[in-house]
User: Which sequence fits this backbone?
């Protein structure tokens, strides 16, 4: 099945914003080698803290200490995907970007609804830069069960774009599938693991389904319950804006997340963890004050996803990308916490301009000039959540275009199938 015939089916499901977008759950058959770890069950907040203590104890490598054996697993898994294309001027030879999100998020990181989709990476990549995009919920997150939808689709060129732990996975991909990727973009990334404990500790990780009991599952109110009804039950006068302020101030925003909108609920079993509150979210993902909307921190906290502890254990497990020879862009916020310790320029080495610049050593086959490490100014780890996110998107678009990876147009468009016309008319 060609990409456009998939797209034509998608379009009938409707367009959410300017881009032509739809969601589809893709069942995939997965066979994978996984590591089995002997880790005490994490069923309380105290267990979550003990796990992070074990993970961050100096001189202790929990990945090695808890390793039991490698095992081959296989099965059918559902991948929840969002496929998007430009709403006008569809390119004759499209380039597809496969977007992999960070732990603690889902694929909506690439298409934030906040502020009228003003922060959407996908809006810029499709409508302005004319790419196709495929974003997906990974590894048991959001509406997916597991997996990688890579083999399901075809396009002229494929670019893999990751953020943070998604970049770690993307970095590990090319050696296994290096013929599959024409270019890679690693955002919120470096190869220096010295600062990861700051992230692990700063998150004050707790049991996800206790932290957001309505949204993540341990309290299931009747589906019609709203904050108004709950407030009425407490017989308090209700000023909705004021209630929101109070909830945020007292860290109750997590407690009520998902209460108003049953559609937002995503149950997570015991063992999934999450950062504790809005302050932890700010510490992990945001840069200098004034460089982001304070409201988006609350939004990020309300819409966060849980994390499987196994993801922290297998961080170092990605194979090297040394066989990859295509263009590579690393783009990291100047104040990134987990990959730069809050300052990407503090290298202590006059010959190393930034911590992410050292990633070049991992790509010996990439020609000089096809590798770039860009520091996005005054930005923290969650690049897409800052006021200047589109500045970063333009850097990515310009780099890919300069390396000949943009979608291209034939002189005579061959865009003629009936379904495709429907798609153009539907927007
Ligand atoms: C697709 O999923 C996103 C969230 O993941 C949601 O906001 C959007 O409404 C969905 N679109 C459709 C067409 O269902
Ligand atoms: C932490 O490590 C100790 C000692 O290795 C172990 O007994 C305990 O089960 C671990 N707890 C967690 C939650 O990983
Ligand atoms: C997993 O499968 C690979 C190849 O199919 C095989 O070489 C390896 O020994 C298997 N590993 C285990 C633990 O069964
Ligand atoms: C995948 O989704 C389908 C339809 O929603 C469902 O019937 C099936 O059980 C799901 N499979 C898995 C592995 O979750
Ligand atoms: C998006 O941001 C720009 C400036 O950054 C602002 O002018 C515009 O009103 C915003 N749009 C929405 C939908 O909020
Ligand atoms: C999961 O599916 C539900 C219902 O289809 C939808 O409302 C929700 O936005 C989806 N969540 C994600 C993270 O895609
Ligand atoms: C722990 O050991 C694993 C291999 O067992 C390695 O990949 C990882 O980098 C190590 N972690 C640290 C922090 O040294
Ligand atoms: C990580 O960065 C710090 C600060 O620049 C530096 O001191 C340290 O040597 C780096 N570690 C590695 C493994 O490159
Ligand atoms: C926004 O980002 C772009 C691209 O990195 C950069 O050139 C520009 O200086 C940034 N603007 C501000 C105000 O930081």
Assistant:
């Amino acid at each position: 099945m060609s990409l456009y015939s998939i797209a034509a089916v998608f379009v009938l499901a409707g367009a959410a914003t300017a881009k032509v977008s739809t969601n589809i759950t893709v069942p995939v058959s997965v066979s994978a080698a996984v590591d089995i770890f002997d880790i005490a069950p994490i069923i309380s907040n105290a267990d979550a803290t003990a796990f992070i203590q074990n993970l961050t104890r100096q001189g202790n490598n929990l990945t090695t200490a808890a390793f039991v054996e490698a095992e081959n697993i296989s099965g059918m898994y559902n991948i929840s995907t969002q496929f998007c294309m430009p709403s006008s001027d569809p390119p004759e030879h499209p380039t597809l970007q496969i977007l992999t999100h960070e732990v603690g998020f889902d694929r909506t990181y690439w298409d934030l609804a906040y502020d009228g989709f003003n922060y959407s990476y996908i809006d810029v990549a499709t409508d302005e830069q004319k790419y196709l995009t495929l974003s997906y919920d990974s590894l048991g997150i959001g509406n997916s069960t597991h997996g990688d939808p890579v083999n399901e689709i075809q396009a002229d060129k494929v670019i893999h774009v990751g953020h943070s732990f998604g970049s770690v996975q993307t970095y590990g991909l090319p050696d296994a599938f290096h013929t599959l990727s024409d270019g890679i973009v690693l955002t919120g990334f470096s190869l220096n693991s010295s600062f990861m404990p700051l992230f692990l500790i700063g998150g004050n990780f707790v049991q996800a389904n206790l932290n957001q009991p309505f949204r993540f599952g341990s309290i299931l109110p009747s589906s019609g319950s709203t904050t108004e009804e709950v407030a009425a039950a407490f017989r308090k006068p209700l000023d909705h804006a004021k209630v929101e302020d109070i909830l945020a101030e007292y860290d109750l925003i997590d407690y009520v997340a998902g209460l108003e909108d049953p559609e937002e609920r995503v149950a997570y079993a015991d063992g999934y963890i999450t950062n504790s509150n809005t302050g932890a979210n700010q510490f992990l993902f945001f840069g200098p004050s004034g460089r982001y909307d304070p409201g988006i921190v609350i939004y990020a906290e309300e819409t966060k996803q849980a994390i499987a502890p196994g993801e922290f254990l297998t961080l170092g497990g990605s194979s090297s990308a040394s066989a990859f020879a295509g263009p590579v862009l690393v783009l990291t916020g100047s104040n990134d916490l987990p990959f730069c310790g809050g300052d990407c320029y503090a290298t202590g080495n006059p010959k190393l301009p930034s911590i992410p610049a050292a990633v070049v050593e991992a790509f010996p086959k990439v020609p000089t000039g096809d590798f770039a490490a860009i520091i996005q100014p005054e930005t923290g780890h969650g690049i897409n959540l800052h006021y200047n996110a589109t500045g970063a998107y333009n850097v990515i678009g310009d780099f890919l275009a300069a390396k000949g990876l943009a979608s291209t147009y034939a002189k005579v468009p061959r865009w003629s199938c009936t379904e495709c016309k429907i798609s153009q008319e539907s927007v």
Summary: The beta strands are 20-37, 67-85, 95-100, 132-136, 157-163, 183-187, 206-207, 273-274, 328-333, 371-376.
